[in-house]
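Interim report, section 4.2 (structural modelling).
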Amino acid sequence: MSEALLIVAHGSHLNPKSSAPAQDHADAIRVSGAVDEVREAYWKEEPSLRNALRTVSADEVYVVPLFVSEGYFTEEVLPRELRLEFDADDWDSDGTNADVAACRPADVDKTVHYCGPVGTHDAMTDVVVRRAETVTGDPEVGDGVGLAVVGHGTKRNENSAKAVEYHADRVRDRGRFDEVHALFMDEEPEIDDVTDHFESDDVVVVPLFIADGYHTQEDIPADMGIADDAGGYAVPTRLDGHDIWYAGAIGTEALMADVILERAADAGAAIDRGPGNRTPTPAADGD
Amino acid sequence: MVDTDAPTPAEALCEAARDGVDFDGLRAARTPDGFRLAVPEAEYADLSAAAFVEAARTHRAYVDNWLFWHATAPQAAAEWAFLRWLERADERSVPERDDRLADGCTREWGQIAVTVRLDDGRRRYALRHADETDADPETLSTYADPHEARRLRKVDDDGDYRPLSTAPTLPGGWAFTDLDATAVVRAVDGFYPATIANWHREREGDLDVTHWHDAVSRQTGIYGVVRTWDRGEGHDHVNWVAEACCADSQCLKRREWEYDDETPLDVAGGDGVFPCREPCSLVIATARTWTRLESERPRTYAFDLTPSEKAQIEEIVDAVADGRVDGVRDGDTSDGANRFRARFLRAKLFDDDGNLCGVPTDAEVE
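Predicted structure of the assembly:
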């Protein structure tokens, strides 16, 4: 039975960078040969979610949402637009452990394995750590360093914060960083007071966002107070006696491609992860 | 590397003849008396397998054509049909097609020119912007990976983001010069996602059109408000949306959706090759803006304008709506959308708060 991976992402009518992570990870997976057929689809770009499944040749399609948390998009918008008979109860999730539900789409004769979002997969914790390594340029980063995992946070969806706290807890449990905190844009504890939360001189800030855009490039740097006059920010930026290493959206990290594949593999996809078929990233600090 | 054990095209046909072949003028079958082979120019019967292979070799063009469409071309129905459409396979005989393919056969798909060529017996495909078919190859950047197409369409020639792939603003300057049948489909789908699939559905008579009313009715979240614009009080508002967003000057898809399945819109759907099967996300997002704006009640404002000033305001709206502002020359003061003409109008008629003729936008209605 032929299999395909369909990466579904938000996309944007305004920001050309919004779809870059989905495209880049799709390309990396395609080049790795891990899956025969790799496609993308978007809520705001093309192919649209409504037209995506008909562009796929395979009979079995593993749909992996490139979203940070479980909620309105993963539970309502994506399945509706993909025309899946799906109920969020099918995932039987507490907000961070959605796995997969098998569905029959209404418009094509295929089986869709609708997976939980990448953001809540355990492997995402490795990406948080990897992001800290890449932004500091230190593969051993952790000792004497604080780590802030930053989420949007919204009172409308408690799962938004849960995903951020979940990974912050998991990184903390590894004991690699001196301090680990989950901080938010729109709820307490807020990113505005980032230095209040850390004793460490060096603080790595990793925003749990898929794409770089207004939130990660303007909002969060401005909220923290590291934005410069030119609309950018220096890495690191000296702030209140700390060096702030701001990483930008985690979704652009190359290791994300592995999380996408983990999601599909967990759902039963025959991922070819032979020695030559792993996405080209160094070994992660996995558990 | 040549696989010497692989069957020749004639041998492959001999094998397939056991189940019967009838394709593009080539017929082959196995009968109790031996093999039969027929092409429009000749017919053979009672052949041994060896004689069949020999006869097939003398009609190589038909055999190669059969083999390409059954072994080399992607065996997915939509992609197969698209590749056949490219070379007008259903309109031309095999010899006529081969003759034309030797020189290259080009068809346009949106703003892409797709050329298929028979090169040493193999079909090779090339893509260019339709406006650049005669361009010097040295002036174009050549790409080999068909997946690059979806990156090439991201911005227009001015570097502006193109969220709608089928906007008639595809940039130029690129060329795919040597793609195989599988790759050319991927590249075309990269430039114009899902157009091949929906075009094929339409040809097969099963395009699943979602009309405006149903598309709006399923919206939720911040787009759910669009439903309030659709209260069954006629469909003029949808005519205006389609005229604004879906005309050929704005999108190359041919609109097939209407207000609902009993109420066609009053504006033309366009002449595009590929269909549009439902209001797209840009239309829905824009409709959300109009839902808010159109909830306002009209008021009567009084402005004193000269006839030329009224005409100039209309000309400016037209210039913006037709996207020709950038083409208005600074020296052409006969054009109402000329920058100096517009600045003069503003200097004369706007007050310090930007109100036309000093009339406040939100003044209490008397």
